[in-house]
Amino acid sequence: MSDAHTRQVQHQFGSAAAAYVTSAGHAGGEDLDRLVAWGRSAAPRRVLDLAAGGGHTALAFAGFARQLTALDLTEPMLHAARGLLHERGVANATFVAGDVATLPFADGSFDLVTCRLAAHHFADLGPAVREVQRVLRSGGSLLVVDILGHDDAELAEFITTVERRRDPSHVRAYRAVEWKAILRGAGLTVMDSAVLSKSRPWDDWTRRMRMTDTAQRELESFIRSAPERCREAFAFRVGDRIESFSDRLLLLRAERD
User: Is the pTM of this model over 0.85?
Assistant: First the structure.
């Protein structure tokens, strides 16, 4: 990750850490339930949660892992995650500041790696996936949830613009075929996958990134003026104001060869 992108991510999320701890969409949902079911069936001893954010995924996996390590690039996020897990009585977790592209762990350190709602912020997905492969033991698993990229170029450009206006540290959402190719190239085989729809309440989604009133008005104007097919593809509810929209989440379970 470049120094400039690192600083941008840390700037965006450093002061938003508390908002991610209280975010209902991050605290739970069908995507997290599916990840937990996959993870529990693997009976892992050592789990690494990448880009841990407010700590909700780490909290869920700490319930059945012997040792849970939460890694995040942003110190205030780690502090928030540590606070959440401490409040819930978790005693088997450690917290590490680090970059997903250069993980500070030895080869084969973990039975399971999770990464939920974070990969679209990575400067480059490939190096991160290769690092995951390195720190997983043979037969270990990677569990991923992220925004699913669109095959339709116009729709992809539209929603990427919306995302970046709300959060400049957003890089891109990868298509399923891209994910599978990158995983395969790194020595990870996709064993299971699913696609879920995720509703985004507009006020909550924009306020979490501390958008100014002016920036939010400009973003809403951009959406209103976009082709109707773009708004329809993401189920934008637009009246006197924007109420919500929906996007798709890709869930993947991959194993190290």
Answer: yes
